[in-house]
Amino acid sequence: MSSEWPLWEVFIRGQHGLNHRHVGSLHAPDAEMAINNARDVYTRRNEGVSIWVVKSAEITASAPSEKGPLFDPSNSKVYRHPTFFDIPDEVGHM
Amino acid sequence: MYAQMVKTDAARVRSLEEMEPHERAFQERIDAGQKIEPKEWMPEGYRKTLVRQISQHAHSEIVGQLPEGNWITRAPTLERKAILLAKVQDEAGHGLYLYCAAETLGISRDQMYEQLHSGKAKYSSIFNYPTLTWADIGAIGWLVDGAAIMNQVPLQRCSYGPYARAMVRICKEESFHQRQGYDALMRMVKGTPAQKAMVQDALNRWWWPSLMMFGPSDDASVHSAQSMAWKIKQNSNDELRQKFVDQTVPQAKYLGLTIPDPDLKWNEEKGGHDFGEPDWEEFFNVIAGNGPCNAERLDARKKAWSDGAWFRDGLTAHAEKVADRRAAAKIAAE
Ligand SMILES: [Fe+2]
Ligand SMILES: [Fe+2]
Ligand SMILES: [Fe+2]
């Protein structure tokens, strides 16, 4: 043998109430070991209360070249922001 | 530095007008301070330079554990031992953050190890010096981690996203490294005359190799100019060395130590210290593999890799067995 251990992406919830956030990756033979290694590599100073790991090979990502078609359409929809609408002062807080 | 004399494959830095449209758009993004992320288009030279630099940096963190590891079992107190253990464990973590950043550029972990073990990839010259006394451990934290911080702080602004983010994590942890070293020395210089002499001796041996960490002057180097244009590098070697000297002189004074450089003196006009030239012949010798500990360090890494093979394979076999069992149970249940 001598095949490389698979690569895992590591996500950590820093505090209660926050989302898990991607912090990096590591190699491990299985998910359990990936969690153990993630504990040692990414939370040596209390940086987390929860860890997710997922095999890098199983992540589907949008292609950088699709950036325009995917995200440009929302640029023109300024009315999605509340500041698009002028509400008179007399109406009070809205 | 941790990455010394990284080559770029560039014969000269080309202007925007000379570039193909793809490359020009790329350079304009860098000039505008945007980060480059994995899988985005990048010039092959940019990718290769980053792989060289990041892997060299990672190897330095990993090999850098060896001189300090030498003293874990011999630390003077249990507290110092726990601190040193935590520091060395951090360095392992730094190596791992960096390997993972390099892997986003399309090189595998095993390829990087292979390059280290075969001597194709370098690591910082500083880790090829021996740690002879406990004072050396203090001196490494103070000077070697101190010099590393000088270099790593600007790297947090590097144009390649994964490298910059790894540097942010690393910089957060480095300041503990430098302080624990200085703290150990503060204690020793207040001890017996023999202890104080031991600290002076450590400074005498580590001063020049620490200055060499920044590499020879690169003001005339094409590679440096190209790295700077790509924002992989932000400051010249001489600039960082000057900052390091100016920062360290008062720290040595506080400890009551003498920096082993007869040419060291304050230059009012430039607002910094003048200092002597490191022995660059020694530096090139160490880089070429002929330093006092090169062979020992490389052998230790190769031995760790081959001694660990049965363990890596065992865990892989176990993972496969468990996965097969789970699949079989699933079929049986259906
Ligand atoms: Fe370091
Ligand atoms: Fe480090
Ligand atoms: Fe360090």
UniProtKB/TrEMBL annotation, chain A:
<dbReference type="InterPro" id="IPR009359">
    <property type="entry name" value="PaaB"/>
</dbReference>
<dbReference type="Pfam" id="PF06243">
    <property type="entry name" value="PaaB"/>
</dbReference>
<protein>
    <submittedName>
        <fullName>1,2-phenylacetyl-CoA epoxidase subunit B</fullName>
    </submittedName>
</protein>
<dbReference type="InterPro" id="IPR038693">
    <property type="entry name" value="PaaB_sf"/>
</dbReference>
From TrEMBL, chain B:
<dbReference type="Pfam" id="PF05138">
    <property type="entry name" value="PaaA_PaaC"/>
</dbReference>
<dbReference type="InterPro" id="IPR007814">
    <property type="entry name" value="PaaA_PaaC"/>
</dbReference>
<keyword id="KW-0560">Oxidoreductase</keyword>
<dbReference type="InterPro" id="IPR052703">
    <property type="entry name" value="Aromatic_CoA_ox/epox"/>
</dbReference>
<dbReference type="GO" id="GO:0097266">
    <property type="term" value="F:phenylacetyl-CoA 1,2-epoxidase activity"/>
</dbReference>
<dbReference type="InterPro" id="IPR012347">
    <property type="entry name" value="Ferritin-like"/>
</dbReference>
<dbReference type="InterPro" id="IPR011881">
    <property type="entry name" value="PaaA"/>
</dbReference>
<dbReference type="InterPro" id="IPR009078">
    <property type="entry name" value="Ferritin-like_SF"/>
</dbReference>
<protein>
    <submittedName>
        <fullName>1,2-phenylacetyl-CoA epoxidase subunit A</fullName>
        <ecNumber>1.14.13.149</ecNumber>
    </submittedName>
</protein>
